[in-house]
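Good day; I would like, with your permission, to put a structural problem before you. What I wish to show you is a protein chain and, alongside it, a tokenised description of its three-dimensional fold. Here, with my thanks, is the record as I have it:
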Amino acid sequence: MKTICSFFILCCMPGLIWCASPDNKTNNTADVKRSLVLIQSYQQAYDWLIPWNKKAISKKNGAALVLPKQQLLTTAELVANHTLISVRKPGVERLYEAELILIDYAMNLALLHVAAPDFWDGLSPVEWGEPEAGSAEIQYWKSKSEWKTIAGKVKQLFIGFRSRSNTYLPMMEVVASMKSNVQGNPMVQNNKVTGMVIQLRDANLDVAPASFLQLFIKKASLVPYPGFPQRGFQWQSIPQGAIRRYFGLEEGVSGILINRILHYGTGSDVLKPQDFLISIEGWQLSNEGTIEHPQWGVILFDYLFTSLNAEPSVALEVIREGKRVQLKTQLASFFSEQYSVPLKVVNTPPRYVLRGGILFQELTMNYLELWGNDWSSKAPTRLSIYRKLEADLPENKDKRLVILSRILPVPVNIGYQNLHNVIVTEINGSSIHHLEDVVHAFENPKDGFHQVKLLPGGERTYLILLDAELQSTDQQILKNFQIPQLERL
């Protein structure tokens, strides 16, 4: 049974979200104005190259939509790593402090609360509508007193891939003549808010549809926050007839070939490599991994995993070894800290261990992004390959990749100063899979020495440190380099 319609009716679920009824007055421009506030966020990100430091403070401006229960909805990127979030009602001089209630960086959404009761005077919860292709307006406060309306056009609903969080999420592609970032501002159609601007990309806007936003609000009311499901497998299309015959596929049957099972995500518990997936909850898959949406046409099947959340389980149909097999799986959410290479970490300081001037860190997306958004081609090859090909394999579940990120030059490590971004495999004979392993290994020197073993391929495969010199050296390092502590776990 196709249950995607449940994704579009959440706005009328009692007690969750304010929604229109026959007795409600239709929203107009004045109503939208009362559902929008301005945000100033002061952010100070951690420095993942020098993990005991922070970067310079920066400021971001944006907007938030007014929700019931004295909550505000905005983007995660506007409030990540904040030191202060201030909000302002348009036309009012006073700034109010906002508190971050929930942030889902993977989905780029966040909820805020303002404790001051008078802040909510004159504000009205947003009235949601269903997006449609065609004309739309992006409405926003250009300044605290200047209201602007920009004409736009909704081109399509698509599944966007958010690389910094390795997630797929539904987006509307909107053509609009915007020259500045308008994150958090509403897209309005038929006098109702049908989406929220997530980012400006290639002169077009990515807008999260209202149904997706409402689903996030519903999930945010649950404890603990369940997150959004993601698929637990990788796949490929089959364009070649010989491959189809090899797998015993019937003529005219469309679908995708499962080529890898991950250690997390929807379907990872029941699917196998070389399964041919032909349907998800009754939705037929094309050979390119798309479904036919009744309103938006062709769209990637990952859309289903953010729209079937009302279902306790999901039906999958596969062809396995030439036979049709019906499977049942649970929608499975996955959070950043569960990845072998954690996804973008915000509001949390980097973990590290420093011994003898050697800085040990765990590979994260934050670290890879030191090489920019195109890190996959610029980061050290071994680190990039591990993230792309090995991190999500079942055998690496519950493991982290520990690296020697850099060396602070002191006499005890003379000759090693040029080493950086190499993978650590053992210390003093103990396998290293977490930073905690590094701490424990350094408590057990062998015959008065510490041996750090590196993954072969570089100029060195191991380092030797004299234990008798290590303790005094570490204290001197803290003083000379003005480092507050030797480790943060």
Q: What stands out?
A: Residues 1-27 have pLDDT under 50 and may be disordered. The longest strand covers residues 147-162.
